[in-house]
Amino acid sequence: MEIDIFKDVLVPVIGGLGIFMLGLEFMANGIQALSVNKMREFLAKAAGTPVKGVLAGTFITGVIQSSTAMTVMVVGLVNAGVVGLRPAISVIMGANIGTTLGNGLIALPLGPLGLILGGIFALIYCFAKNEKVRNIALACMGFALIFYGLNLMTGGLRPLRNLPEVMELLQTLKADSYFNLIKCVLIAAGVTAMIHSSSATIGIVMGLGAAGILDWTTAVAFSLGADLGTTITSWMASLNLSKNAKRAAYAHISFNIIGVCITVPLFFVSIGILEWAMQWFGGDPAVPVLVDGKETFPLVPVAVGLYSTFFNVFNTLLLFPFIGVFERVLSRVGRTDEEDIEDYSTPRFLDRKLANDFAQAVPAIQKETARHLQAGAMFLNIARGDKKAPSDPGEHYLATDILSRDIRLYTSNLMKEDLPYDQLDLIASLIEEADFTAALTESMHQVARRVRREKFGAEAQPIVDAALNKLDATLRSIMPDYGLADPQMPAGHVNHPAVEELRARTLSLGPNAGAAERGTILALLGSIERAEILIQRIDAERKSVNRQSVLARASVRKEARDQSMGSGGFSPVPAE
Fold first, then answer.
1. Which of 198, 383, 406, 449 has the greatest number of beta carbons closer than 10 A?
2. Model confidence over 186-202: pLDDT tens digits?
3. pLDDT digits over 272-321, tens only?
4. Which of 84, 81, 98, 101 is nearest to 50 (CA)?
5. CA distances from 263 to 251, 266, 315, 345 (A)
6. Does residue 196 sit in helix, strand or coil?
7. Where do the TM regions start and end (predicted)?
8. φ, ψ for residue 386, nearest 5 deg
């Protein structure tokens, strides 16, 4: 049958690649929009330690039977900021083992299943009114489209395997020397890279070996190359993602490359061990069995499956002690000065061990809220083009948004029914301050975005600088240690123009500035005005409750309770 390269190969491959990348984007966006706190807690339980990460990766991949999909999903979760690099490395290790646990399921029609599930979740996303349901549907739709995209790419490249030249090449391959072994490994890696499935490649090799087209040793060598080639998909998945997502993909690649480099010199020794072990699984795989008058080799698939499983288990056991080394090395790959900036998506002071101690939890919340405020102030540095500031305002805002959710959740969990009214009032005040801080950060984000998007002329730039300096000075009322201290000069010496004055100066620019410039400055002034109102609200909220007094009374109550429990009796607590 003649193959139409355009229709049968290019169309499904390019279309499948696009759907695959879109599915990854949808999945990451859906996960990010869902409850990040609950997702993080779930993953902390599933992959909180390297051992748990390996077990989780093995189990989940064993169920879905696709290390490619599992690795792509992990890369997407790392990109969404939900999974850190270290647990991702251990999960990917487990995924390599999990994919070998059910090679009998390699013919599972995940492509059509992905399409119908993608369609169902797309309809749910379009018609659902609840935002949470829409986000869940978006994440599920993305995951389903990953399967369908991979299926399209595999289908587009499958006709190439039917070409006579390809079959002739396979029949001439024989892993009888180290040179030919390396050639077999590289060819299998190339085939796997094209069809994006090590399981599919191993299935093909099993069939070729069982039919006698490949001898069993060569078939085993091909399975080794399949484990190497499957890394191409995680690399493709990480192309347009964050640096940590790229590093997770590099971890997958480096594991398999190191494993293959170690196994190749030991290949013929391991083949001898496998030949000895096969006596418990049916006998010598090189001995043919006559079926309908034709020679077949039914034990070759068993040998290939055993070797593939052994390789991945051996590779994981060998490299598992070096997870920390991998993390340190990979964290330096592509590192820039920007990454030395603090990661504001992870709380620093919200220790769960303090959550039941009101007197210690409240100061931790205050420190974390102040840290959130500091992260918001960095948008002024972004607006000014500071080289040490984050380069992408959107990514930095995403980090502050995650931190804001953590602060609100931690603070809300302090509310207990048996708490005195003054403590409940303080918790409410902390929640309101956190909410005002989140709104202020959003306004600061808008300031940075507007300044970065527009190129201002010589007449307009001084107005922008004055507006930023004004906001900078206003921030010091709630951030005394922020920026440079005010110069010690007579009162009134340092004067910042009011928003109304800056607006009037903008309107009077006339032909000295374009309409887009003036419109941007006016919108910028609106964001600054909202920011200043929120700064005043934060300052007022801090003063609305005598926080030190409430904390002092809480400490007295705690000491009284501790003394009572220590003496084994009951000690009355003075009434307020």
1. 198
2. 888 887 777 666 665 67
3. 888 888 888 778 887 777 766 666 777 777 888 788 888 888 888 888 88
4. 84
5. 18, 5, 9, 40
6. coil
7. 12-31, 43-64, 101-124, 136-157, 202-228, 249-274, 304-326
8. -65, 130
